[in-house]
Design brief:
The complex is a heterodimer. By secondary structure, chain A is mostly helical. Chain A is 72% helix and 3% strand. Chain A is built from 25 helices and 2 strands. Chain A has a two-stranded antiparallel sheet. In chain B, a hairpin with a 3-residue loop joins strand 1 (59-61) and strand 2 (65-67). In chain B, helix 4 runs antiparallel to helix 19 (448-466), helix 14 packs antiparallel against helix 17 and helix 16 runs antiparallel to helix 18. Classes of the chains: A mainly alpha, B mainly alpha. The A-B interface holds A 575-576, 578-579, 582-583, 585-586, 588, 590, 592-594, 596-601, 603-605, 607-609, 611 and B 155-156, 159-160, 163-164, 167, 199, 202-203, 206-207, 209-210, 213-214, 219-221, 223-224, 226-227, 265-267, 269-270, 273-274, 281, 284-285, 287-288, 418, 421.
């Protein structure tokens, strides 16, 4: 049964090929059946494989399908590697991916490029599956770039609006910075350890490199660069809010549930390397903590429903990085899993609101939708609760595990995490209260069909109960020493649980009961610039504009008549002149031709005899 | 002569019989289709006879001819090339006025000359083969008697060929005067046993190089090429560019390997000089050329220069690799050049020869398959991957790099860059979108045989470009046999 693994990424890829080759010739239902069906079959295979794997010994399973690159000392197979970590990722990608595909069938209905949408989605899923299945870094990189391509194509899906094209390019370029670092890391590892195979690399690193020395530090730092780009962490996080230009199912699948977690997966997959570089590992935690605070503050003031969720995604991935940095590997992956459930749920619910409410994105113009859209409202309630980690939701278990582990490493980082949890509570319920409570301003024009409702319903159940899932990651990661639960620890635990509840309370006071007014707060002279600062994502875009874009534009302006081009123009000019020169010898006269034969012969005899 | 020598000569005898059969056939019944059938049958029979000869090889059939794997391989390359040219000739000449049957007779004699040339091991066979080939070519070039251009081309080729043959004979005479030998191996022994370099022999070899350089249109003996290529009927141009040049090049290689030509260092200086000039001047001449036939003529000068680099490399690297490179390059060159001229031939009508580049404007919209085929041929000539031309060029690069011929390598790189420009220019012209009204409906010409030939050539182009192993496995024993 495990041999079916090879088919898992192949089905979506075939779906992509069929849909692309047929372009828009298929009818909408047929395109949907192919697009959804291919992912569905993959999901089915994954559940079969998962059933056997989880009931078995859970020993890592390797499957080599063929050879990709075969040279003297380089050998890169199309090899897949299955362990508990891969299994978890497979469940997330195919399971959540399948639900989002089903949802898309309704959401994208009557879009003129219906088949193209499913083609891109299939391409993305296929690449993501290659990424998580790859047994070597080269193949992983193929998947890594594949998801980048898929993300670019889908953000710019509605390409007729130039802004969407801009957002797509921004995402592509920003992640590319990280990709370059990853590629360098990959080359470094290969030149030092002479293999691309991840398991051999980790083993080789552990055996040959003493902890804390330069080589593991540099290679871990380069891999971290890649992870930071793909997972939208500080300082490469600016692309994710703009990526919301894509259709909402895309935001749910790529920019919340799967692709952006690729960085987390990469670090978890190469955790042995990071354990050899404790400084870099601590940097991972610091990046996570800073990102979760910065993104959380920005999420507080956004008015676009999707941008709130985008910033919350950055912030939640910050938690995963925090966990990775603290060495709580399985907690990070656990949070990745639950986050995939509740964030996909929130995005899809947001999509339903947008779908039914005149394509409106501004939450200030919404209100009182509780009655009109009960399913969406409850989805949002559950999603918001899980996002803020209210007790007994799925998010609670994973986030609690993370914060407990972080406290062991650094109480300061723990405090940042708790502050982040408080902020999360505020913005999650601000969203829920502003959109669904209060006075309804306009009537809802349509209601979501079953193919949008069913995924919401299922994801709602998963977001509530996902915390019960037992992820058997102990076979992959080193087990943390269980902390002794003394008094301080109980206090810490209590604070950790209380932080989001406090956030909920603040949100209730400000946005539900009206005891305090956010509007009045915003009118204070000190608050205005702060609000704008948060709204613009801490001015990072402006900073990068000043630091990189402007100097670059200046340089291009200075070198408008490319100096290097001059060389090539000169070559072209010289060639033309030489052409005219030698053409003059072609007179068409036989007497000249004959004499040239004689002259030529004399010349070569001279060369032959004199040399 | 015993029976196995006779068997070894079977391909050459079969060709001679075919010549007679065609002549008699014409005497009995003057029909172009009928004559074409006999000719094709004759060529195929000669191909089959190769298998017969294979069982006897290697063997010296008389003093003049040595039938070995190398000779048989190149006959097996020349004969199908002749068959392809025959196919294009059929479509090209079938609707033209005049008595076109003798053309096929001459095609067969030319092939016979070329076959003798690749198998010759003696100056007499060498000269006989060369002249049989050349004299047939004079008439083939000027075959459309009533047009001026072919006639002009034929006369130019006749006169200049005469001059070059004079050089050739003089060279042979000088060598004979010194060594008293006419066989290649005898000359080789003589040179190997000489304590010092013999100036007379050296001059003789250089004169022979000049004579052969004319046939190969190497700079500075290249001036005739564009005029003759332009004037000759397109299928005949294909024949000159491939069969004639290929056979002469093989002879040159054979002569140098068996007659110890590589022992003389100054000769290599001469060859390097010729190669660099051929590559650069050939490509420069083609650069802004607006006549496709002339352009292909100039590019063939450059291709002969590339071939010469591998030939020179044979001095410093193992002979087998150099011969392997030359052989593969020749095969790729045959396929693409015949294909390219085949396209020109298909496009030509009985009124006009499709030389000017304006004929190719928007060809992709009028004849997409033909344009695609031409594009592939041009890409192969330029040495773009996935085509046979790429593997050929790769071989040349390998030989040059192995032989540490950095200057020559530089010339190849510069030449390839220039080459890309003018090959791509034709492709651009073909893809220019023209107004629908500009497309003359005209009567669809029936060129079924030519199109089939082009399809086969295109498939070979891809096959040898993507899976060269099969051809390489065939070539390797050939390169061993020549030593």
């Amino acid at each position: 049964m495990l041999e079916l693994l090879g088919w898992v990424p192949l089905f979506p890829f075939l779906g992509f090929l069929i849909l692309v080759l047929a372009s828009e010739r298929f009818s909408e239902p047929l395109a949907a059946w192919i697009g959804i069906g291919s992912v569905g079959v993959s999901a089915l295979f994954v559940s079969l494989i998962g059933f056997e794997f989880l009931n078995g010994t859970m020993q890592p399973f390797k499957l080599v399908l063929g050879s990709w690159i075969e040279m003297d000392d380089i050998s890169v197979p199309f090899g897949f590697y299955l362990d508990a970590l891969t299994m978890t990722m497979l469940f997330v990608v195919t399971g959540v991916g399948f639900l989002i595909h089903v949802y898309s069938a309704g959401f994208m209905a009557s879009d003129p490029s219906y088949a193209r949408f499913f083609a891109y989605m299939n391409l993305f899923v296929s690449a993501m599956l290659v990424l998580v299945l790859a047994d070597n870094l080269a193949l992983l990189y193929l998947g890594w770039e594949g998801v980048g391509l898929g993300s670019y194509l889908l953000i710019g899906f509605w390409y007729k609006d130039p802004n969407n094209g801009y957002a797509a390019r921004k995402a592509f370029v920003m992640t590319r910075i990280g990709d370059t670092a990853l590629a360098l890391g990959l080359f470094l590892l290969f030149t030092q350890l002479h293999t691309f195979d991840i398991q051999s690399l980790m083993l080789g690193a552990e055996n040959q490199w003493p902890p804390g020395t330069l080589l593991p530090m540099v290679s871990a730092a380069l891999l971290l660069g890649g992870a930071v780009g793909k997972s939208a962490q500080l300082p490469l996080q600016t692309w994710l809010p703009d990526a919301m230009a894509g259709p909402t199912p895309v935001s749910a699948l790529i920019h919340a549930a799967t692709m952006v977690t690729a960085g987390v997966y990469l670090i978890a997959r190469t955790h042995s390397l990071f354990m050899l570089a404790p400084t870099v590992q601590f940097v991972v935690a610091v990046i996570g903590a800073l990102t979760l605070l910065i993104a959380g503050c920005s999420a507080l003031v956004q008015t676009d429903i999707k941008r709130v969720l985008a910033y919350s995604t950055i912030s939640q991935i910050g938690y995963m990085f925090l966990a990775l940095g603290a060495g709580a590997w399985s907690a990070a992956i656990f949070h990745l899993l639950t986050h995939a459930f509740f964030k996909a749920l929130l995005f899809l619910a947001a999509g339903a609101v947008i779908f039914c409410f005149h394509q409106e994105h501004n939450i200030i113009k919404m209100g009182g939708l509780r009655k009109a859209m009960p399913l969406t409202f409850w989805s949002f309630m559950i999603g918001g609760a899980a996002l803020s980690a209210l007790p007994f939701t799925s998010g609670f278990y994973s986030k609690h595990e993370i914060l407990m582990a972080v406290f062991e490493v650094s109480p300061v980082l723990w405090a940042a995490g708790c502050l982040g949890a408080l902020i999360t509570g505020i913005y999650s319920f601000r969203l829920v209260f502003v959109v669904f409570f209060g006075v309804q301003s306009e009537v809802v024009e349509k209601s979501p069909g079953w193919c949008m409702s069913a995924p919401l319903f299922l994801l709602g159940i998963l977001a509530l109960s996902g915390g019960m899932l037992q992820v058997p990651l102990g076979t992959v990661f080193p087990v943390l020493t269980s902390p002794d639960r003394d008094f301080t620890f109980n206090l810490v635990s209590a604070i950790t649980v209380a932080a989001p509840l406090l956030g909920l309370l603040i949100a209730v006071l400000f946005y539900l009961t009206g005891a305090f007014s956010a509007q009045r707060l915003a009118n204070y002279s000190w608050a205005k610039p702060l609000r704008l600062f948060f709204l613009g994502g801490w001015g990072m875009d402006a900073l990068y504009d000043k630091l990189f874009v402007h100097p670059f534009k200046t340089i291009t302006r200075l070198n408008k008549n490319d100096a290097v081009d001059g060389l090539y123009l000169a070559i072209a000019w010289l060639s033309q002149k030489l052409h005219l020169l030698v053409s003059a010898s072609q007179t068409g006269r036989v007497r000249w031709y004959a004499s040239s034969l004689v002259l030529g012969t004399v010349a070569i005899i001279a060369i032959g005899l004199l040399s | 002569m015993n029976s196995n020598q006779l068997a070894a000569l079977a391909p050459i005898i079969t060709q001679s019989v075919a010549v007679l059969a065609v002549m008699l056939g014409i005497a009995i019944r003057r029909s172009f289709v009928f004559t074409c059938c006999i000719t094709a049958f004759g060529i195929i029979a000669s191909l089959l006879a190769l298998g017969f000869a294979w069982t006897e090889s290697p063997v010296h059939a008389t003093l003049l001819i040595r039938v070995d794997a190398c000779a048989l391989f190149f006959m097996a390359l020349l004969l199908p090339a002749g068959l392809a040219v025959l196919g294009f000739c059929f479509d090209y000449f079938k609707d033209r006025e005049g008595e076109n049957e003798e053309l096929l007779l001459l095609l067969l004699t030319a092939l016979l000359g070329a076959s003798v040339l690749v198998a010759s091991s003696h100056f007499a066979a060498f000269f006989l083969g060369l002249e049989t080939l050349s004299i047939s070519l004079f008439v083939l070039i000027g075959y459309p008697l009533k047009q001026t251009r072919p006639l002009e081309a034929a006369i130019k080729y006749l006169i200049l060929s005469g001059v070059s043959s004079a050089f050739l004979l003089m060279g042979m005479a000088l060598i004979y005067a010194q060594s008293g030998e006419l066989t290649f191996s005898g000359i080789g022994h003589f040179i190997a046993n000489q304590p010092a370099m013999n100036v007379m022999v050296l001059s003789g070899v250089i004169l022979i190089v000049a004579g052969l350089g004319f046939k190969l249109s190497l700079v500075p003996f290249h001036l005739w090429t564009p005029d003759v290529y332009q004037g000759a009927p397109a299928p005949i141009t294909a024949f000159i560019a491939t069969v004639s040049k290929g056979a002469v090049f093989v002879l040159l290689l054979r002569y140098f390997v068996s007659a110890q030509g590589y022992a003389y260092t100054p000769l290599m200086t001469v060859f390097s000089f010729i190669a660099v000039l051929s590559i650069l001047i050939g490509n420069l001449l083609a650069l802004l050329q607006n006549n496709v036939k002339r352009l292909l003529a100039y590019s063939s000068i450059a291709h002969m220069g590339y071939l010469l680099v591998a030939f020179i490399a044979a001095r410093s690297i193992t002979h087998t690799l150099a011969i392997e490179s030359v052989t593969f390059y020749l095969v790729a060159y045959f396929i693409t050049t015949i294909g390219a001229f085949g396209v020109v031939s298909v496009l030509s009508t009985s009124q006009t020869e499709a030389g000017d580049i304006s004929f190719y404007r928007g060809l992709f919209w009028r004849r997409p398959w033909l344009a695609a085929c031409f594009t592939l041929m041009l890409l192969s000539l330029a040495g773009i991957p996935l085509t046979a031309g790429f593997i050929g060029k790769f071989y040349i690069f390998t030989s040059a790099a192995d032989g540490r011929l950095w200057g020559l390598l530089l010339a190849i790189i510069a030449g390839s860059g220039l080459g890309l420009y003018y090959y791509l220019r034709i492709i651009v012209v073909m893809s220019i979108n023209i107004e629908a009204t500009e497309i003359q409906p005209g009567k669809p010409n029936q060129n079924r045989i030519s199109m089939a030939m082009l399809a086969v050539l295109t498939m070979l182009l891809f096959w040898f470009g993507i899976y060269p192993d099969l051809l390489i496995n065939v070539i390797q024993p050939v390169s061993h046999a020549m030593e």
